[in-house]
Design goal:
With 174 residues, the protein is an alpha+beta fold. The chain contains six helices and four strands, in the order H-H-E-H-E-H-E-H-E-H. A four-stranded antiparallel β-sheet has the order 1-2-4-3, sandwiched between helices.
Amino acid sequence: MTENKFSALSHERYSCRHYSTDIPARSIVDSILGLAALAPSACNRQPWRMMIVGPDDIAARAAVKASYSREWIGEAPYYVIVCGVPAEAWVRSFDGKNHVDIDVAILTEHICLAATGAGLGTCWVCNFDPAALGKGIAFEDGVLPVVILPMGYPAETTMPEKKRKELNDIILRP
């Protein structure tokens, strides 16, 4: 990928909170997740799982909405629930730091960038109630939901302005 393509994706990607009523083909979502699965992980352990909740998954959609009380989330035709499997993750020997959340974060942002490249919007949702989500969706033992990504065509016709700190404010110097 050239710098220009990555630059475009970085500038175009934003937290989409309003979705069109147009429903992307499931094949587009599957393609996005296939690209995201190429994401790196510590020691290539890939301690993640992805669950796709589609437009017809009534009970699972209700569980997502019950776990996150913002109305806008109901507009998204798809949700990708990104899960971590701590038992499969690399653990740093010096201090016991389990890298499952880091690996899940890398995968999640790969999903977001791939979705942007396909013309879809996403938004990281981490402020959800896992117990409420688990009442409507059965997760395997040891598989923990970490992020809910609503996904669909953005309803916005213009991208919101990005507000970021200045580079000098975030770079540490030795």
